[in-house]
Write a structure and sequence with these properties.
Helix content: 55-70%
Number of strands: 5
Bound molecules: adenosine-5'-diphosphate, tryptophan
CATH superfamily of the largest domain: HUPs
Oligomer: single chain
Largest sheet: 3 strands, parallel
Distance between the termini: 29 Å
Order of helices and strands: EHEHHEHHHHEHEHHHHHH
């Protein structure tokens, strides 16, 4: 089974990205032939500083490896190392109705958030479809927010196959992480870099503790019982705590006599401990950037060999050769 997914190097990885995308993808590396990529062409739709893009791409590679991606099992590569993807995106765009792109939620959301309505942002789904179809991917693990992009990918592959032959492209299946709850941010909205409410995976202890202390709570007095429904602290604590710790937390909320500062401290301790192995691995990798480069170069070579095979097949099906 060929598994493929990508993450954009568009900012510092936060725990929403980790639980919603990174962790589920890495777990799948044992179940098939996994291809994971750093979507740097895509990141250009939301950022314009060259040095930041370079740095973010390296950071994301470090994050993948520190989170447990094993280069012996999974292939990790940089999207732009395989420029063939742009050619396939072009071919797909020839069968892509304008209406399909106009209906894309993610485009509409990004415009609403104030991004420039440029062509790359509009055509994003054709590049994403090319990312997937270029590797004959069968299973694509993604968060719920990417569901429509996967439907578009299947739609475009179907159109190519109808027009040029059923054997031209493999139709992929989305694997949507339905049960991964949306991780809330410090303010209770969905955690997202665009809302400035994130908790990153690593950073200086003091600064991270300060961020946890910023979590929005109500003004119940210390001695009173605290609500457990819709509690931001509890939703986040659940991600890191053992069952016993969780029960204790609920009991202490119900009992009263504990302030929110105390609960936040417990949350901070659990979160800090949970990512301790990640921090250690990442620090080690930071001292070994040559190794990281070698992994990406080898991954990109392997990915490119696959991509060339598929593109040759498509080129001859559509009459370019
Ligand atoms: P952001 O919202 O910070 O810009 P992205 O859109 O780059 O994050 O997200 C990359 C992936 O991480 C998404 O496809 C989604 O699966 C996952 N993700 C992002 N935020 C969350 C969240 N708060 N909870 C769960 N998963 C999330
Ligand atoms: N659009 C995805 C996101 O924003 C990233 C992505 C680009 C992707 N190409 C992909 C994910 C191909 C899966 C498969 O999170």
């Amino acid at each position: 089974m060929r598994i493929l997914t990508g993450l954009q190097p568009s900012g510092k990885l936060h725990i929403g990205n980790y639980f919603g995308a990174m962790h589920p993808a890495i777990k799948l590396q044992d179940q098939g032939e996994a291809f994971y990529f750093l979507a740097d062409y895509h990141a250009m739709t939301s950022m314009s500083d060259a040095e930041t893009l370079r740095q973010n791409t390296q950071d994301l590679a470090l994050d993948f490896l520190a989170c447990g991606l094993d280069p012996e099992k999974a292939t990790i590569f940089r999207q732009s190392d395989i420029p063939e993807v742009c050619e396939l995106a072009w071919i797909l765009s020839t069968v892509c109705p304008m209406g399909l792109l106009e209906r894309a939620h993610s485009y509409k959301d990004k415009i609403a958030k104030g991004l420039d309505a440029n062509h790359a942002l509009f055509a994003y789904p054709t590049l994403m479809a090319a990312d997937i179809l270029l590797y004959d991917s069968e299973v694509v693990p993604v968060g719920k927010d990417q569901k429509q992009h996967l439907e578009m990918t299947r739609d475009l592959a179907g159109k190519i196959n109808d027009r040029f032959g059923e054997e031209t492209l493999v139709i992929p299946e989305a694997q949507i992480q339905e049960n991964t709850a949306i991780v809330p941010g410090l303010d209770g909205q969905k955690m997202s870099k665009s809302y400035n409410n994130t908790l990153p995976l690593c950073g200086a202890q003091k600064a991270l503790r300060k961020q946890v202390m910023r979590i929005t709570t109500d003004s119940t007095p210390v001695e009173d019982p605290k609500p457990t429904e819709d509690s931001n602290i509890i939703s986040l604590y659940k991600l890191f705590a053992t069952d016993a710790e969780m029960q204790q937390m609920i009991a202490d909320h119900n009992a009263g006599g504990f302030g929110y500062g105390d609960f936040k401290q417990r949350l901070f301790d659990a979160y800090w401990e949970y990512f301790a192995p990640f921090r250690a691995k990442r620090e080690e990798l930071e001292k070994n950037l040559d190794y990281v480069d070698q992994v990406i170069t080898a991954g990109s070579q392997k990915a490119r060999a696959e991509a060339t095979k598929v593109l040759d097949r498509v080129r001859s099906a559509v009459g370019l050769r």
